[in-house]
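User: I'm writing a short report section on ligand binding and want a predicted complex to refer to. Could you take this sequence and phenylalanine and write out the structure as tokens? A short remark afterwards would be nice.
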Amino acid sequence: MYDINDLIDKIELIRKDSLKKIQTSDNIETLKKIYNSVFGKDKELSLLLSEIRNYNIQDKKTLGEFSNKVKKEITDKLFEKETLLKKELVNKELLKTIDVTMPGISNNIGSIHPISQMIDKIVKTFEYFGFSVASGPEIETDWFCFQSLNLDINHPARDMQDTFYIKENHILPRTHTSSVQIRTMLSEKPPIRIIAPGRVYRNENQDQRHTFMFYQFEGLVIDKTTNIKDLKNILTTSLKNIFNNEKIELRLRHSFFPYTEPSFEIDATCLLCNGVGCRVCSNKGWIELMGAGMIHPQVLRNVNIDPQEYQGFAFGGGPERLVMVKNMIDDTRLFYENDLRFLSQFKKI
Ligand code: PHE
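Assistant: Sure. The structure tokens for the complex follow:
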């Protein structure tokens, strides 16, 4: 039986020796051999450790703790080195097959259509104010598209929205999203707050400002005291957010729609010159953005809402127009030509 200090010295020697071997080893096979030579059943360390049982309790404790520490240190270092060697091996293999100096392959990532991006922005903005999204069919009846909105069969204002009539059933591709106002007021009880984006169709000769199909968004608010001041406030705050421009101011200019009274054209200060006057706004300082007004009492009666109890406003505009104003685009047809040279400029509007 060794003196306890001798035993400790012997274990320490094995520790130093194996750590050194581990450090200088350069392959996994050698590491396995080191492991076996230390921890193998009839190997030096195991033999020494089997001596521990002959010591008194106090010494057993000291020797036990010490040897456990040594065993842990050796296995940890073995594992560390093994991981390192494996990594090196993988890297070596990779280098054989990959030429890191070769030019990469770029991914041609598409982008969302600028109109869709604008609709998303509009919807998110109004959702923030508690509006929910509504929709209606693109093929409408004459009643939903016109008559319910005070545009009787022979009303001259129909001329502004000529479309492709299908005579038999009084159905037609809708000319504006205002039909969604009617559908919503019939299906929901006030208070109402909706935003309704969608496609509309008109019989147009196509030019820089007209296409036979385009997009609109319709807003409708019905409540007991909703008034023009609310309309202006909500639109001002929303457009500031949509254009990401705090300086925008709105102007309500008198206009006419048979379904609103009073009716307005909504103008915004020109985004380019901030109202000073420039080429984009034809030196007016203002650009026309959308139509709006307080809902006509007869329209409320048409959908069984009592105009004595409820009032509200509606507004409608074109997302194309907003994208054009924001990006100084002067031809609306560009949106529908699928030309990637144009579209790929709108990774983010
Ligand atoms: N429907 C109108 C248009 O297409 C816009 C509008 C909507 C006007 C709501 C007033 C109220 O031009």
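A remark for your report: The chain is about 40% helix and 20% strand. Strands lie at 132-133, 139-141, 171-173, 192-201, 213-223, 250-257, 260-269, 286-295, 311-317.
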